[in-house]
Specification:
Structural class: alpha/beta
Strand order of the largest sheet: 1-2-3-4-5-7-8-9
Number of domains: 1
CATH superfamily: Aldolase class I
CATH architecture: Alpha-Beta Barrel
CATH topology: TIM Barrel
Strand content: 15-25%
Mean pLDDT: 93
Number of helices: 11
Distance between the termini: 41 Å
Order of helices and strands: HHEHEHEHEHEEHEHEHEHH
Largest sheet: 8 strands, parallel, barrel
Oligomer: single chain
Low-confidence stretches: none
CATH class: Alpha Beta
Length: 303
C-alpha cells in the first residue's frame, strides 16, 4: 500500500490494480474496518465532504476542473482525514471504496451520499433521484448514515419527485436506525438555471417542508448553509444541524465567522465541509482543516 501522502498517480496505480485484479477486497476492507461512535467525545461531528463530482460539480474557486483529478482528490482527502478533530467523510461509493482500500477510514465516521442524479446545470437538476447509495447498501457496507439533498423550488415539478424519493430514503434509513442527513436549499429557476436562494425566510419555509418528510423524524438531521441571519433559520427546527461548507471563494472569512457564531446554538452539532477545506486558496489543506476543527472545538468547550 502506498503512503497516504503519496502523489496522486501512485494512489491511482495502486487502486486500479486492486480494482482490476481483486475487486472482492473492497467489501472486505469495509467489513473489517474499525468503527467508532457517531459523535465525538465532545458531542460534535466534523466530516469532510467529497460527493460533489458525482453530481458533475468539479469547480472550486476559479478552477473549473479542480476536483476532476481523482488522484489529487484522494491525496487531499487522506491529508484531511489524518488531521486531529476530523471525525470522518461523506462521499459516494466510488470515493468511499477508494478510501477504504487505502486504509483511510479506520476509526472514522462514514456517511454515504444517496441522491446525485440532479446534475449541476442539467434540465433535470431538481429531479434529484437516488443514483448512488441506498439504505440497504449503507447498512450492508457498515456506514453510519446516509446523506440526501432536497432543493425546494415551487417553479419546477422535479422537486416533488425528489421529495418523494427523499421521504422513502428517510423511512428506510430510520427503519435501520441510521441517520438521514438532509441538505436543504430553497431554490428557483432563473434563466433556465437552478439558483439557490440565500435568504433566511426562504430557507425557513424549505426547512419546514423537508423536516416533515418521512414516517418519522427520529433519525433525521439537517445540513444547512451558513447564511446571514442564521439564528432566525436555526429557530425553525429542533432537529440536529450540521453546517454546510460549500465553495466560499473570496467570502471564506465571512463563512468561517458564520460557522463560529453558529456553534453557540444547541441544534448545531458540527460541520460538513468539502471544497473549502480540500482546495483552499493557499493550497494548505492541513491548515484549512485545522482552522475548521478549532471552530468545532470551541463549540465543545463552551457547551
Amino acid at each position: 500500500m502506498p503512503d497516504l501522502k503519496s502523489g496522486g498517480n501512485e494512489l491511482l496505480e495502486y487502486l486500479t490494480r486492486i480494482r482490476r485484479e481483486h475487486p472482492e477486497r473492497i467489501a472486505q476492507a469495509l467489513k473489517v474496518r474499525r468503527r467508532r461512535a457517531l459523535l465525538s467525545e465532545r458531542g460534535t461531528l466534523f466530516l469532510v465532504a467529497a460527493d460533489h463530482p458525482a453530481r458533475g460539480v468539479l469547480k472550486v474557486g476559479a478552477d473549473p476542473q479542480a476536483m476532476g483529478d481523482r488522484g489529487e482528490l484522494l491525496r487531499h482527502l487522506c491529508v484531511a482525514l489524518e488531521r486531529p478533530g476530523v471525525d470522518g467523510v461523506l462521499a459516494t461509493p466510488d470515493v468511499v471504496e477508494d478510501l477504504a482500500l487505502l486504509g483511510a477510514l479506520e476509526g472514522k465516521v462514514v456517511f454515504g451520499s444517496m441522491n446525485r442524479g440532479g446534475l449541476r446545470g442539467s434540465a433535470f437538476e431538481l429531479d434529484d433521484r437516488i443514483t448512488a447509495y441506498d439504505a440497504a447498501a449503507i447498512a450492508g457496507s457498515g456506514l453510519d448514515g446516509g446523506k440526501l439533498m432536497v432543493r425546494v423550488a415551487d417553479d419546477d415539478p422535479g422537486t416533488l419527485d425528489t421529495m418523494v424519493a427523499a421521504a422513502g430514503a428517510i423511512n428506510e434509513l430510520a427503519g435501520r436506525r441510521l441517520v438521514a442527513m438532509v441538505e436543504v436549499f430553497a431554490s428557483r429557476i432563473q434563466n433556465g438555471q437552478t439558483v439557490n436562494i440565500d435568504d433566511a425566510d426562504a430557507l425557513i419555509r424549505a426547512v419546514a417542508v423537508v423536516q416533515g418528510l418521512g414516517r418519522t423524524s427520529a433519525y433525521t438531521w439537517l445540513k444547512l448553509p451558513a447564511v446571514d441571519n442564521l439564528p432566525k433559520l436555526l429557530r425553525a427546527t429542533s432537529l440536529p444541524v450540521v453546517l454546510l461548507g460549500g465553495d466560499p471563494g473570496a467570502e471564506a472569512a465571512a463563512t468561517y465567522r458564520h460557522w463560529k457564531e453558529a456553534m453557540a446554538w444547541p441544534q448545531v452539532v458540527g460541520l460538513v465541509a468539502g471544497r473549502a477545506l480540500l482546495y483552499p486558496s493557499d493550497g494548505d489543506v492541513a491548515r484549512a482543516v485545522d482552522d475548521a476543527a478549532a471552530i468545532i472545538a470551541s463549540r465543545a468547550v463552551s457547551a
